[in-house]
Amino acid sequence: MPFSIAQLIEKRKSEQYALHSWYINPSLARAQMIIGFDKIYVRGEGSYLWDADGNRYLDLLSGFGVFNLGRNHPVVKQAIQDALNADRPNLVKMDCPLLAGLLAEELVKRMPPGLEAVFFANSGADAVDTALKFARAATKRPRMLYLEHAFHGLTLSTLALNGGEEFRRGFEPLMGGFDAVPMNDLEALEKQLRQRDVAALIVEPIQGKGVYIPVENYLPEAQRLCRKYGTLLICDEVQVGMGRTGRFLCCEHWNLEPDIVTLSKSLGGGYVPVSATITRRKVHDATFSRLDRCQVHSTTFGQNELAMAAGLAALHVLDEEHLTERSATMGEELLKGMAALQGRHEMIADVRGKGLMIGIEFKAPKSLSLRAAWTAAETARKGLFAQLVVMALMRDHRILTQVAGPDVNIIKLLPPLIIGDEEVEMIVTAFDAVMAEAASVGGRVWAQSVQLVEHALARQV
């Protein structure tokens, strides 16, 4: 019998949650069911998903930043098909692949001055791990600094840079020599750098978990201090890069010239996992320092033909469709619309972001009845109100969002960069309706809290 992936999907699509519950991650499958996210999606196009019943959903997660170009972009799809049809010699290994060289060339064109050497891998965590190794090789120093609340990955090395206690808990002891410093505290940073044993400071120019934006002078001054004490600056652009914040790299908002940049997620055009670590030549050469060390750092699938083709096509689309500029324009419109809601709904504490990376933070209400409901939810699980809003957006408006991190009342919006006025209006209108509903303790938003509180309390037993 011939193999058909299409027939296999059609035959067994109703089993996906059962299969995940049995073989992959039962806790995640159960969580999806509890919050009403257990949809069976059958198609994705542009900014939208469709389920098996034909319902359309606006996707504001974008695969946590993978789909900057939208889903199933035809140019990227065609590039991958062309690469497959060419029957090129993939992963020869004793080879210098053409497409990898071409993608590296295109990336270097888009970098701040001095970044001219590229290493390809498969994921954001791979890229960060590469950056850490290169920094140690270049400086011969053992320590790394990261900012509180940071997220740079979940592998064992990147977990040591993770500012979220919930992610770290249960995996200790973590790698030593990794220390957190508070964002915006230059005195605390200099105190660490003054010891002259820090290989690198790694920063997300805007932090993904919470959408925390540094004060205007912090990153430029942090870069100056790193230069002063011989420490490298790594800008983790895995989520905030590729046009997400209205610049190709987020660090461009502060005119930074880092020593190392990491990219991933949307670099693969929404199809193929790929990451890039772009460095100064002297940093790169310190790792690959001799002929017998030319493969001292490598990864099996890092320069595969499909990933390189997807990366080249993704950069082409970003330029041809002016998506970085579109991100800036539509992000400004969305921020303006959400900021107007802040004036009408007391529980919206803050609206912040750059481009199409936006955080909406909530605060406790003033009325006694609402405050009692808020306190009950927050006592059971910090950040539970934001999850109630997420659930209401999905249930009543078919908008896919998520809380911006553990234990925070913040929702993060990461729509595809292709959204237009229609989607902006949909988002603002939906949030307006949900927040109006949340202003009544008898409304459907708070009605969902009972089940979530019960589950949260059960976790504490």
How would you classify the quaternary structure? single chain
Strand order of the largest sheet: 4-10-9-8-7-5-6
Measured on Cα atoms, how large is the radius of gyration?
23 Å
Kindly report the average pLDDT value: 94
SS content category: alpha/beta
Helix content: 40-55%
Q: Count of helical segments?
A: 19
What is the level-2 CATH architecture name of the largest domain? 3-Layer(aba) Sandwich
Domains, number: 2
CATH topology of the largest domain: Aspartate Aminotransferase, domain 2
- Looking at the structure, what is the overall shape? globular
> What is the level 1 CATH name of the largest domain?
Alpha Beta
Annotation, overall tally of beta strands: 15
Largest sheet: 7 strands, mixed
Q: List the uncertain runs.
A: none
Structure description:
With 461 residues, this protein is α/β, with parallel strands linked by helices. The chain folds into 2 domains: 35-69 and 323-460, Aspartate Aminotransferase, domain 1 (Alpha-Beta Complex); 74-320, Type I PLP-dependent aspartate aminotransferase-like (Major domain) (Aspartate Aminotransferase, domain 2, 3-Layer(aba) Sandwich), CATH 3.40.640. It is 44% helix and 15% strand. It contains 19 helices and 15 strands. Helix 6 (98-109) packs parallel to helix 13 and helix 16 crosses helix 17 (421-438). The longest helix has 22 residues, at 323-344. It is globular and about 70 Å long.
